[in-house]
Amino acid sequence: MLGKDEGTELMRTIASHVRKGAMAYLRQQYKVVTIVFIVLAVVFAVMAYFHLQNGIVWFAFLTGGFFSGLAGFFGMKTATYASARTANAARQSLNAGLQVAFRSGAVMGLTVVGLALLDIAGWFLILDGTGLLEWVHAVTDQADQSEKLIVITTTMLTFGMGASTQALFARVGGGIYTKAADVGADLVGKTEYNIPEDDPRNPATIADNVGDNVGDVAGMGADLYESYAGSILATMALGAAAFAGSAVEGMQLKAVLAPSLIAACGVLLSIIGIYLVKTKEGAGMKELLRALSIGTNTAAVLIAGVTFAIFAWLFGTETDQWWQVSLSVVVGLLAGVIIGQSTEYYTSQSYKPTQKVSESSQTGPATVIISGLGLGMLSTAIPVITVGVAIILAYLCANGFDVNYTAQNLSMGLYGIGIAAVGMLSTLGITLATDAYGPIADNAGGNAEMSGLPAEVRQRTDALDALGNTTAATGKGFAIGSAALTALALLASYIEEIKIALIRTGEALPNGIEAAKATLVDFMNAYNVNLMNPIVLVGIFIGSMMAFLFCGLTMNAVGRAAQKMVEEVRRQFRTIKGILEGKADPDYARCVEISTRGAQHEMLLPSILAIVVPILTGLVLGVAGVLGLLIGGLATGFVLAVFMANAGGAWDNAKKYVEEGHFGGKGSDCHKATVVGDTVGDPFKDTSGPSLNILIKLMSMVSIVMAGLTVTCHLL
Amino acid sequence: MLGKDEGTELMRTIASHVRKGAMAYLRQQYKVVTIVFIVLAVVFAVMAYFHLQNGIVWFAFLTGGFFSGLAGFFGMKTATYASARTANAARQSLNAGLQVAFRSGAVMGLTVVGLALLDIAGWFLILDGTGLLEWVHAVTDQADQSEKLIVITTTMLTFGMGASTQALFARVGGGIYTKAADVGADLVGKTEYNIPEDDPRNPATIADNVGDNVGDVAGMGADLYESYAGSILATMALGAAAFAGSAVEGMQLKAVLAPSLIAACGVLLSIIGIYLVKTKEGAGMKELLRALSIGTNTAAVLIAGVTFAIFAWLFGTETDQWWQVSLSVVVGLLAGVIIGQSTEYYTSQSYKPTQKVSESSQTGPATVIISGLGLGMLSTAIPVITVGVAIILAYLCANGFDVNYTAQNLSMGLYGIGIAAVGMLSTLGITLATDAYGPIADNAGGNAEMSGLPAEVRQRTDALDALGNTTAATGKGFAIGSAALTALALLASYIEEIKIALIRTGEALPNGIEAAKATLVDFMNAYNVNLMNPIVLVGIFIGSMMAFLFCGLTMNAVGRAAQKMVEEVRRQFRTIKGILEGKADPDYARCVEISTRGAQHEMLLPSILAIVVPILTGLVLGVAGVLGLLIGGLATGFVLAVFMANAGGAWDNAKKYVEEGHFGGKGSDCHKATVVGDTVGDPFKDTSGPSLNILIKLMSMVSIVMAGLTVTCHLL
Question: CB-based contacts of B654: which residues, under 8 Å, 6+ apart?
Fold first, then answer.
């Protein structure tokens, strides 16, 4: 990718401006996040000192955060180097542009998954192969391999908490940054002064393009890294628990390693898919989407085949288990494909729903908003039902189609659900490529506009950008779908941690059953984690509320930051003479600074809330309340996230549809109305919505890490 | 109220137009609803024939629907007669206007609660005093009084299903009608032609004013009737279950009658509160709000006192139970007050949050939308936490502060939660008055404008109207808060019905425990209704999704109906010559017709979905899935409803705040931006949002009525 030409002098300058701005922001963000990480690590170290945790948690937490940050950093490096090159390639042809953008996205996708697998494998080897766990007394010297594997896998989940924390800051901070800049640029530039998007006369353009990189690329990289690592780690823990009593030698270890193996093969097969993505000049949106889905679907089919081979090899073909568990992976893959298709249907301007949003612009901005919100809400049905069916199918496949709710069936079934999540994310190498590709195309368009390249180049990058809106929504669908599948696994891990904490303190369950011998079902009954328990209900209410509260905080943060940006842009238009005629340069740096400060300032409260609320819930309501909180947050967060991602994607493309010449085209009243929709959609799809899946998992991870505290002290 | 003068000739004509339109619509709606009721009654009769239900259900269902419809009808009669009189009284003074509007609202409030109590008492006397239950073999001749009371109270819940079904149609149909007209009138009139609200030149004005009556009055009347009856009926059922084994003679009957007694006293004490509401000329919003809250809070304090007396008399003062249960009522009352205050804070233009929404209009409509959505989301925190705390406190108070989760504690605790819901709604006589008063004031404003009354009259009705927006949001807060409290009671009733169905078919629980002897906790364990059961999780997902899907359907329905209205209004402005100069009359009737047809057409799908989905869930997922569905729908629906009601209220008042002269006042760009917010808020606060609490309860009621079917056949 770096071998491609970056284009004219002006293109180089602009790209370097964006690159510098992005790096400057990232440095700032990492500074703040580092402080948070150090504080939390100290808390964990103190907890370990009081035997509320084992002594590796604090360190595993730090490495998880570090690698997640690294994934975002590499992603952004790639993206900022790719945009000018994409614009330059788009000067030749649409296909050349697509290929540069898409392969650059692929570089990022592969980096993210590679880093995750590296980190997981490394930690596993260290914990399993060295005496580290014995040294910090996390396991006794007499512990057998089965016990040790359970401790290893639950410890590794704290590495997931590091990744989640980092991802939340990246998504929220980056999201606020990018949307403050975007909304600010659009509101004054497009709406008030009628100058085109990415026009160099607009002082917020550079900040807008920097934002695409820090929010949509670095944020998304950290996010999907977290999803990917999270689902693998949680499934490893489930495997350790489900096969703990297996009579077959080494079966437990095999079950623990299977998710990583599937994921690793997924990376390799994704590369094949990536090479299949190409298009012809003048291709419409449908052809572009088809080009991408050929790549993704090929990768999915290949992975399904390989999965059967992996399990046949690991589990042997004597029993039916190998193909039953493999079917669970296929269920996850299929669910991913359906969610992808549904997202495409609801957010691409090639289909009715988004076109209807465009049509409603004839009656003004209010109906654009109403119809977009309506569309987003309706679009939740297919993904939720798909995930619901996938959960039940994956569960039944893995436990041999036995509908009886026994402890053994439950463990195996949960492993099946976890492995389905791994299956859904196994194509991440390529789906992340399609996702990361979006902001690259967007930036390429910005670069083309600002460098004054011919109109057909901008047309090509616009086509790529519109495609990017849909693929980004698809990527978010994957992230939230896999989060919903992983969530049950995390609940099981929470129970496992409660068990370890009870064993550590020598306590029995509330109903007297010995902790070491208790099954998941015993735990549910002992802690009354049923739906008629008011504490569970209150937990669920708080969880649901958390999803909304979090979105409200981030939406308002964007609103506030955007308002400051609007005032600054207006000020520049007013006070800098000749700016509108292109005779004087706007003060880009000031806008970049405003976005950076806004993001730094606003990202703290929602992120810290996500950490504090599960801890408080545990201290007041105990185990049943925490489980309620997690389920409530999951259910509402899942649906809310799909709603926000799809509504946002649809608004953006509804605007693009009008820009293509429908209902009066660019500059018409209809166009203005859809710009309002697009602006509202910005925080929906790039700040609040995509943060929700991280929120869900971070709350689970925090609960897991704090399980020891919850067992020792709670009010009810 | 009818003794007051209706004003000038023109005022009378306009009022009679509105009255006729409203009645015509209501006739249409009742026609459609009657068909649905007959179909459902036949289904129930068939189910009774196959012993899946007792033989009174179908008839109780019909009467519930009938009385709920009657409550709406009377409410609308009152409101349509009151608006011109309010406008006329406002010609004298603000206080005179307030009093006519408020007392007319009170007539409606008292009618609703009176009808509910009449129906409940009547049914109870018939079922308890006659041999009807024995005659249809719902109870055997040998049944003791304790068993019989349980059957009576659960049978009476189906009367609640009738009320819920009627209420859902009234809310959704009326909501679509009113908002199609409102959005249509605003979009073309205010935004495109810059003519004031309720201007007689606007063809959609009459439809708009009719809409206020059919949606906000008839719809709300049916809605609150349903909430009121639902909470009393559910608590009666809980009382029958909790005190079934009481050693004290007649204790169970007393516990069953207590909720109705509290409610009846609440009605009487509300009247005192109603007489305390008055204001001075030139009063600001804060004074007006204070005038109302003096009335409401006095009623609340009086009811709290009387409750202690009631329970001391019923339960005797030998044990602590009388004051413990009374405390639960106080908890409910307090929770209601806090929810009311919080709603006021978030939706009244006297406070910061709504003013900030107005302020954000300086950067255009997009930021108005973003900040309104943000405000709505943040505003969910206080009500949810309040209800959460209330649930736990009411639970603990009623079972004597015993945190152990035993079957007996659970039953008593649930009774406490139910009685807290009754407490929250016991001030309904007056809170409904404040709520019903809103649309009366709105219509009075319309009448004043169309009749060309002097500007100060319109100013006075505007002040009353702005107050109405906040009180309406408060009313919705009560409806949804009580729904959240009642929901657990309905879950318990569902289990009770499952039990009755099992006893009828002679089956035991899945784990072998005899159904007749099983406690609630046994049921939870036997059906594995715990949070680690994938079926429960899938149910919760579907429930959450239902809340969004339902809102999406109703939002889109409003969008579609409004679009037709916009086209019609534009057509009339274009084709009828002299309409803008006031020389030619617009075709009001055509607009009324379009709204009516739109509402009839669009209300069916969402309403039927609410009935079909719980049945399907029961058939596929069984008992655990249904309970998941209900909890998921409750949790997400609760938060979503608060969000929508408050965001909608805030947008409306943010517009009013600008109209008061801030940020440029009427006609400025800021005003236009807030009109967009107001328009988006219309379906939020008057269609989708307030339907959610009915949806939640209707799904529970349907599940209860269909429990027999779920026990007999389900897939998983």
Answer: B349, B354, B355, B357, B358, B361, B368, B372, B674, B677, B678
Q: Please give the torsion angle defined by the CA atoms of residues A17, A19, A20 and A26, in that order, rounded to the nearest 10 degrees.
A: 140
A536 contacts on B by Cβ (under 8 Å): 531
In angstroms, rounded to a whole number, what is the distance separating the alpha carbons of residues B410 and B402? 10
Of residues B369, B562, B679, nearest to A680 (C-beta): B369
- B530 SS3 class: strand
Query: Which residue among B367, B555, B675 sits closest to A563, beta carbon to beta carbon?
Result: B367
Alpha carbons A168 and A174: distance in angstroms, whole number: 10
State the average pLDDT over residues B436-450. 80
DSSP A306-324: HHHHHHHHHH-SSSSHHHH
Burial of A583: CB neighbours in 10 Å, binned 0-12, 13-18, 19+: exposed
Q: Pull the structure tokens for residue B48.
A: 């009774």
- Quick one: pLDDT at residue A3? 67
The CA distance from A186 to A204, in Å, is: 9
Q: What are B510-559's pLDDT values in tens digits?
A: 888 998 888 888 999 899 999 999 999 999 999 999 999 999 999 999 88
> B367 vs chain A: nearest CA distance in angstroms?
6
What is the number of CB-based contacts under 8 A between chain A and chain B?
290
Q: Suggest the residue from B342, B519, B532 to mutate for an interface test with chain A (most A CBs closer than 10 A).
A: B532
Contacts of B547 in chain A (CB under 8 A): 639
Say how far apart CA B525 and CA B543 lie, in whole Å. 21
Query: Which residues of chain B neighbour A612 with C-beta distances below 8 Å?
Result: none
Tell me the chain B residues in contact with residue A530 when contact means C-beta distances shorter than 8 Å: 521, 524-525, 529-531
Instruction: Give the three-state DSSP class for A280.
Output: coil
Q: How far apart are CA B66 and CA A106, in angstroms?
A: 63
Give the residue-averaged pLDDT of A11-33: 85
Each residue of A165-202: pLDDT tens digit? 998 998 899 889 888 888 888 878 877 787 877 788 88
Distance from the B12 Cα atom to the nearest Cα atom in chain A, whole angstroms: 33
- Kindly write down the DSSP assignment for every residue of B145-191, as one continuous string: HHHHHHHHHHHHHHHHHHHHHHHHHHHHHHHHHHHHHHHHHIIIIII
Is A632 a residue whose pLDDT tops 90?
yes
pLDDT of residue A1 exceeding 70, the answer is: no
Query: What pLDDT, in 10s, does the model give residues B373-427?
Result: 999 999 999 999 999 999 999 999 998 888 888 888 899 999 999 999 999 888 8
The pLDDT assigned to B88 comes to: 85
Alpha carbons B640 and B591: distance in angstroms, whole number: 31
Which residues on chain B are in Cβ contact (under 8 Å) with A373? 552, 555, 680
| Predicted-assembly ipTM surpassing the 0.90 threshold | yes
